[in-house]
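Q: Hi! First time doing this. I have a protein sequence and I read that you can turn it into a structure. Is that right? Here it is:
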Amino acid sequence: MYLNCGIVGLPNVGKSTIFSALTSAPAEAANYPFCTINPNFGIVNVPDFRLYKIAEFIPTQKIIPTTVEFVDIAGLVKGASKGEGLGNQFLGNIRQVGAIIHVVRCFEDDNIVHVEGSISPIRDIEIIELELAYADLESVNRKLENIGKFLKSQDKKVVEKAKLQEEVLTKIRINLEEGRPARKVELNEEEYQSIKELNLITIKPQIYCCNVDENSLNKDNEYVKHVKNYAEQNNSDVIVICGKLEAEIAELETDEERKQFLNDLGLEESGLNQLARTAFHSLNLNTFFTAGEKEVRAWTFKKNSLAPQAAGVIHSDFEKGFIRAEVYHFNDLIEYGSEQKIKDAGKLRIEGKDYVVQDGDIMHFRFNV
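A: Yes, that's right. Below is the predicted 3D structure, encoded as C-alpha cells:
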C-alpha cells in the first residue's frame, strides 16, 4: 500500500517551494532549471479534525495523526523520456510513488524564468503528460516484446497471466501512442493487478496543483480556470495554492500565528492542508481510530479492507490472531458523548472477520497469538 506522492512539473513552477512549505523540510529552491537533482523526501501529517474531537471525549496523553510521504522530484522538460535534462533518472523516481501531484505555474513574474519562455498551463501540463506517456510506452513495449516466452510456458497459470497481460497492455499501448495516460483505460481489478508490477506512471491518480500569486487565492485567474476545465475532463482533482504565501506561513512558529495569518487573508485553512488531505484520498485510503488513555491515533487503511486487514495495519500479530473487533463510529461518539453511553444505547458493535471497515470507525481489536 503506497503512502507517498511525487511532486512533478516543469522547472521553476514552484515545486520545491511548495514541498518545503508542505513538509517544513528544506529543499533547495532557486531560479534556474534542475536545481533539484536528487529527490527530496518529507513526511506530512494529514489534518483530521476528528482526532482532536475524539480526544475531547476520551482524555489522552498523546494525539497521533496519520501521515503521507511527499517526494519532490526534479523538474522534467520536453524530451525527458528520451533522456533530456536528467529525464531517465527523474522518471525512475516517479515510478516509485503512489500518486502524482502535478504543480502547474498559474502566475506571472518576469523575475522567474519559464523554461518554455511563456506562461501557458495547458501546454505545460501536456508537455509533462506526454513525456510520462512516452516513458510508460517504452515500458509497455518492452514487456510485450518479452511476453512470448511466458505464453510458451508449460505452467497454465503463467500462460493465463501472460495472455491477460498481453490483452491489457495492448489496450494501454494504443492510448499511450496517442499521448493519453494509462488511467484513461477502464480496467477491472483483475486486469489492474495483472500489470501492477510495471509501476506505470500514468496509471497513478493525479492531482493538479495550481501555483498562483496572492491575488488569485480567493478568486480563480484565467490560468486556473483552464486547468480546472482540463482536470474535469480527465477526472482529476485540482488544488489552488500560493506557494509564496505557504512558505511564509510555514516559517511562523505557532499555530496561533498561522491561524491569525490565514484569518487576515480570509482563509479557513492553508492550501497545503487541503493538498495533504486530497493526496491521502487520491491514494484510495481511509482512516480508522484507536482511542484510549495513552493515545488517540489515526490509522491508514485501504478502502474496502476487512477488519483483520485493518488490524494488521497496527501489527501483523493483530491480523494473524484476529478474533473480533469492538466498533463504533466517530459520529456515535459525537452524539452520545462517551463509550459507556454508546454501549448503553446499543451502538457498540461486535464485528468479525467479514466486517468491511468504514472511514471514521473507532476500533478495539481482540486477538490471540
